[in-house]
Design a protein that fits this description.
The chain is α/β, with parallel strands linked by helices. 40% of the residues lie in helices and 15% in strands. It has two domains: 8-30 and 61-257, Type I PLP-dependent aspartate aminotransferase-like (Major domain) (Aspartate Aminotransferase, domain 2, 3-Layer(aba) Sandwich), CATH 3.40.640.10; 259-396, Aspartate Aminotransferase, domain 1 (Alpha-Beta Complex), CATH 3.90.1150.10. The protein has helices at 8-14, 41-48, 63-75, 87-98, 113-122, 138-144, 167-176, 189-192, 226-240, 246-257, 259-279, 297-303, 318-328, 358-364, 380-396; strands at 80-84, 104-108, 129-133, 149-155, 180-184, 202-206, 220-224, 283-287, 310-315, 333-334, 344-347, 371-374. The structure holds pyridoxal-5'-phosphate.
């Protein structure tokens, strides 16, 4: 028989998943068990010392979690993966594994608000030095390197203004200076970009978003080499304890099976919505990497296989203009989070980026009225009709 390579959807459906070995049930069960029964003490010793593969206690691993990890490792072309309780648990556990007192971290100056807060307020409390830079320009990363730099942390596309960082270029700088590159690829998903293939050491995701896809779980994923994942798992995740629940792991497994077809629909609708908004007289600026006006459009074309479902835009009239749009959409829900099958709109300064001060946001260009839109998989015409009605209300402000 000839071997063949699995394409994205085939991998997403089959990797890691198999029928239940006990009953033959087509879809593997949710293993809701906090502990696992041993044959004898000798086996308990072998498992605890890593001489035999097996499960012992829920915080150290669970078969449903393993299914999710194998699927995500396959989709990100990594050797291994680790599922966590949230995207923030994935980020915190990874950074705490790589960094210690006296080390230096370079991070993007526009990243998800809670990651920014974690780095600015918590890591620095443990004696980790931090430099925030605009990571869309590799020169800024190079200039920030210090002898004690251990990690470069980028988010690409970044939340909320969709700036793109050159993953391959950042990996080269990291490796030439004895550091590691960690990439938050939540906005892209493995359908649109594979940071490990471009040289990153670790990729992290908030699985709450596109991977789960239906807005019904909170979870996170870390993908990397076997060696790095085993260091993050044991002892860091085991001791910090931010593990995923088997029920949530099951819903992410189910979500991943349709990730490819969902992402195609997100990308198609988002492109149409971004082009519509860019032409609208009440819209000042649209931030979407699929638009030729985006400053890193060419880089996005090179390192991504599509531009995703996320965008931000500034409405004429500043805060009043943005607020009027968000308060007048009907199909689109005013809610933080993103990557759901339904469209979500939010006010970035008060929702995803409340942890940054007004001054910090102003410095990096997160405008006070800025609107972030997570384009769902509804038909683009309907999303545009909803926005059209809301933008009509902005016209009435006379701005
Ligand atoms: C880019 C990005 N990374 C990480 C996170 C954190 O994920 P979670 O909310 O699952 O902890 C978020 C949440 O919005 C995000 O947008």
């Amino acid at each position: 028989m000839k071997n063949f390579e699995l394409k994205f959807n085939a991998k997403a459906i089959h990797a890691g998943s198999k029928p239940c070995p006990a009953t033959g049930a087509h879809i593997g069960p949710i293993y809701r068990s906090s502990t696992f029964v041993m044959d004898n003490v000798e086996q308990a010793i072998r498992i605890s010392q890593g001489e035999e593969e097996g499960y012992s206690y829920g915080r150290f691993g669970n078969p449903t979690e393993t299914e999710l990890e194998e699927k995500m490792a396959a989709l990100e072309n990594g050797e291994n993966a680790l599922a966590t309780a949230s995207g923030m648990a994935a980020i915190t556990t990874t950074l705490m594994t790589f960094l210690k007192n006296g080390d230096h971290l370079i991070a993007g100056d526009i990243i998800y608000g809670c990651t920014y807060g974690l780095i600015r307020d918590i890591l620095t409390k443990y004696g980790i030095e931090v430099t925030f830079v605009d990571t869309s320009d590799l020169e800024n990363i190079k200039k920030a390197i210090q002898p004690n730099t251990k990690v470069i942390y980028i988010e690409t596309p970044c939340n909320p203004v969709l700036r793109i960082a050159d993953i391959g270029g950042a990996a080269e700088i990291a490796h030439n200076n004895g550091a590691s590159l960690i990439v938050d690829s939540t906005f892209a998903t493995p359908f649109l970009q594979n940071p490990l293939d471009l040289g990153a050491d670790v990729v992290v995701h908030s699985a709450t978003k596109y991977l789960g896809g239906h807005g019904d779980i909170v979870g996170g994923i870390i993908v990397s080499s076997k060696e790095i994942i085993s260091k993050i798992r044991d002892p860091h995740l085991q001791f910090f304890g931010g593990i995923i629940s088997p029920g949530d792991a099951f819903l992410i497994i189910r979500g991943l099976k349709t990730l490819g077809i969902r992402m195609k629909a997100h990308c198609e609708s988002a492109q149409a919505v971004a082009e519509y908004l860019e032409e609208h007289p009440m819209v000042e600026k649209v931030y979407y990497p699929g638009l030729p006006s985006h400053p890193q459009h060419e880089l996005a074309k090179k390192q991504m296989r599509g531009f995703g479902g996320m965008m931000s835009f500034d409405v004429k009239g500043g805060f009043e203009g943005g607020k009027t749009v968000m308060n007048n959409v009907k199909l689109i829900s005013l809610a933080t989070s993103l990557g759901c099958i339904d469209s979500l709109i939010q006010h970035s300064p008060s929702m995803s980026h409340f942890t940054m001060s007004k001054e910090e946001r102003g410095k990096v260009g997160i405008m006070e009225g800025q609107v972030r839109l997570s384009v769902g998989i509804e038909e683009a015409e309907n999303i545009i009709e909803d926005l059209e009605n809301a933008l009509e209300e902005v016209k009435k402000l006379g701005v």
